[in-house]
Amino acid sequence: METTGAPNDGLLQHPWRPVAIDGCQLLAKSCFGETRYHILLTDLHCVWEETMHSAAIQSRAQELNKRLQAPVKAFFSHLCEVVRPCLSGSRQPPEGEANISVMRLDGGNLSLRLKSKLAGLPLHWEFRCTPAPVTVVCLHLVQPLLSMSHTLQQEVEQLEGLLVSKDAEIQDYKENGATLSRARLQTEIFERHTYRGSFLAKTLAVVCSDHHSVKNFGVDLQELYTAVVAHGSMRKRKLSEQDELVTTVVDATTSSDADRGEADSEQNQTSPVAEAGDHIVRTATTQQLATCGLAERAPSKAKKKKAVGLFR
Amino acid sequence: METTGAPNDGLLQHPWRPVAIDGCQLLAKSCFGETRYHILLTDLHCVWEETMHSAAIQSRAQELNKRLQAPVKAFFSHLCEVVRPCLSGSRQPPEGEANISVMRLDGGNLSLRLKSKLAGLPLHWEFRCTPAPVTVVCLHLVQPLLSMSHTLQQEVEQLEGLLVSKDAEIQDYKENGATLSRARLQTEIFERHTYRGSFLAKTLAVVCSDHHSVKNFGVDLQELYTAVVAHGSMRKRKLSEQDELVTTVVDATTSSDADRGEADSEQNQTSPVAEAGDHIVRTATTQQLATCGLAERAPSKAKKKKAVGLFR
């Protein structure tokens, strides 16, 4: 659910990657099409984005490069070549070939200014990123990060269980008189609570010394992120197919109810007075369902019919 | 760093708790003082907040309860009693005692409307929550969730290592002819990659069937959240103390440099022309340092002096 009308350009499926641009540590996500792009950046204190399409790119290219003659496609192809590796964290542009500076502007905007060369002439570009809407931050960061934390917490619990089983096996060998040929192989009995306390005390001191470090989004977490959003998207597609199916069924049921002219129609009768003050309540109720999101996705048939009725 | 001027009321240290209000699944955080409160709510698609202090509470209480005579303190004390348990997920208000409805309003706002009774008279309250700034979402969700994911990923790796050690111990017993008295205690050899693939395939299907479920923020994650933000805050306090120390040292150094009238002063000399176009660059450079946040917190002495110079 791209709630903000953000382009459905597959950016969600891209992992965040730690990048260092102009000495700034950022997490970046970008998606470059033929003559369009969508980028997201965060320093973990704010999140910025910019989406640009062909005409806007052409106009800004002209604004920043008065003498530019190249068609937007050639210009954009060069831009991609220089910028894409930087934003994917794979490499910095070679010294002299291109220079990118990062500037935080008044109003909370973030500007990435590129100076490069195209056919021997200086070429300028500017990514004018604005703070992303909270819905975008939720979609691209909060939701996946919570699912990742939950998944990892489950994995920790399962691995702890496996360790307890290994200890039971070891204990049985020992009770039957087995001994180790190499004493260094002896492990301590795993005790969940003692272990966790000591692990957290040690690890949090290190993790939190880099508390806001974008580097914490390492390769393992990038892979998990991709897996989580891929599963989430699959789930959404399935739900959306189910919704279509339910709506079709409900529509058919509503029509046949109407034909029978039964009790339901009474619920839709309103006095003019009630009707006047009713709009906000209706809006609120419908939007309330929207707020509840997935939790409300499987209402009873009666509930669903009522919700549909609000729009009639 | 409460970058938005949000009240430093300790809300960061509170864990998020899954709550169900009026059928809506939300994560909530709240902090109630004597006659003030600060609440944060999210359905994982948006994040809302409201901060209210004594005078504003009094004025809204009067607006919503024309006949109210009670002093703000008595009113607020009753409000806390009813609302606090709901927002901490500990219990719903008993049927008939109070009713809270959740409404998503135009403009993306979220309203929680309370109907209760005080001294036998109906009592109304409304939490008028607005979408939280992205910086607040980063502070209360993105930063801690990333640190939590990173910590849990480390824990997974460490537990995997322990399992490999257990297997080495078991293997040694076996090679020395040990046998199990109870065959059911036998475990499979732990193979990191096979295990992870199969774990993720199974778990993500379940986690992502509840992809946006606030219930994923379970008790274990709440505890980890609290530990992570507590360590983060400790770290910030230490850094802030260090910063004060560095600033004092730098101030002293700058003064003595100025007394000696050395080369540094040349760098601050600007022609009138250069000065005119210089403001935006200066602003950008200073703000750039701010953007880079903690990554830039330990600059060389020379760098620090330059940054300080920009404000003089």
TrEMBL record, chains A, B:
XLF-like coiled-coil region domain: residues covered: 133-181
Keywords: DNA damage, DNA repair, DNA-binding, Nucleus
Keyword DNA-binding part of the UniProt annotation: yes
CDD domains to which the protein is assigned, alphabetical: HD_XLF_N
Residue stretches making up the XLF-like N-terminal domain: 15-130
Cellular localization per UniProt: Nucleus
Record InterPro entries: NHEJ_factor, XLF-like_CC, XLF-like_N, XRCC4-like_N_sf
Signal peptide positions on this chain: none
Annotated spans, Disordered: 252-278
Gene Ontology biological process terms, A to Z: double-strand break repair via nonhomologous end joining
Gene Ontology CC entries for this record: DNA ligase IV complex
Any one GO molecular function term: DNA end binding
Transmembrane feature ranges: none
Family named by the database record: Belongs to the XRCC4-XLF family. XLF subfamily.
Protein name in the entry: Non-homologous end-joining factor 1
Native source species: Hippocampus comes (Tiger tail seahorse)
